[in-house]
Specification:
With 274 residues, this protein is mostly helical. The chain is built from 13 helices and no strands. The protein has one domain.
Length: 274
């Protein structure tokens, strides 16, 4: 019995360690870079004037670790199937070569965006919201630590995507690692509170197919809009993109830091030379 359980325990701990490490590196890293080191230079890109209290950040961190534990537990499903020889997908994917390696990664990201959009809209139903999604929206003013701050049900919905994908689509294990890396990078940046995406000269996003920080920040501010995770496609097609999204994005990318505004005011108040 012990010989049977030990590999599962070892896999669970390894998965926990990998996901916690990624979460800590990027949540703490994004917070330190944007909120501390570059807070003054990037003041013009701050979406909201206020900052969430320290208590919120600690709660988000603890809840995110709990979500990662759920992800790791769900990962035992694919580990068990693979160990029993009932999950040939990784072997099949490897035999398809490097082209499929990168293609499967792109397809997984696109599929996850669709999964997230539709499940996200589902748990915004008033009959499900309190039980599945309330925890995440308690972070009305989000931070990088909000990334995995989920209720138990939402953590399950988000975590079960990877096992289902691997059962249906031949995918190598390293692709899963890259997918999780992409996911946490986009998630922590998307909750960072600073608009980091570039704008065109007319104020529109340079990459309009990608969700920006403003896009998701609007969802936390007004929950009935902007359900997408990586791409704006589903929100546009389904009419759920916030009507003022582009205006808000243009406004925050055009903002100047207070120091620059003060310099301009000082310059205009100086007497002109005779």
């Amino acid at each position: 019995m012990l010989d049977t359980l030990l590999p599962f325990a070892s896999n669970w701990l390894a998965s926990m360690w990998a996901d916690v490490t990624r979460y800590v590196i990027f949540s703490v890293g994004v917070w330190l870079v944007l909120w501390v080191a570059l807070a003054i230079p990037l003041a013009g890109r701050k979406i909201r004037d206020s900052r969430p209290p320290a208590r919120q950040l600690l709660t988000e961190f603890a809840t995110s670790i709990r979500s990662i534990a759920i992800f790791s537990t769900l990962g035992l499903l694919t580990f068990g199937l693979f160990r029993a020889g009932w999950l040939p997908g990784p072997y099949i994917a490897k035999s398809w070569g490097p082209v499929w390696f990168w293609t499967s990664l792109v397809l997984m990201i696109v599929a996850h965006d669709a999964w997230f959009y539709w499940t996200h809209r589902l748990i915004h139903d008033r009959r499900l919201f309190r039980r599945f999604h309330r925890r995440h929206h308690r972070s009305n003013n989000p931070s990088p630590f909000t990334a995995y701050s989920f209720d138990l049900g939402e953590a399950f919905i988000n975590g079960v995507f990877v096992p289902l994908w691997m059962i249906v689509v031949p995918t190598q294990w390293p692709v899963i690692g890259l997918f999780m890396l992409h996911q946490i990078v986009r998630n922590t940046i998307g909750h960072s509170g600073y608009e980091l995406f570039p704008a065109r000269n007319d104020g529109r996003p340079l990459f309009p197919f990608l969700t920006t920080v403003t896009h998701h920040d609007l969802h936390h501010a007004q929950a009935g809009w902007n359900y997408g995770l990586y791409f704006t496609f589903w929100d546009r097609v389904m009419g759920t993109e916030h009507p003022e999204y582009l205006k808000r994005f243009a406004a925050v990318t055009a903002k100047k830091p207070k120091k620059d505004k003060d310099s301009e005011l000082e310059a205009t108040s100086r007497p002109s030379p005779a």
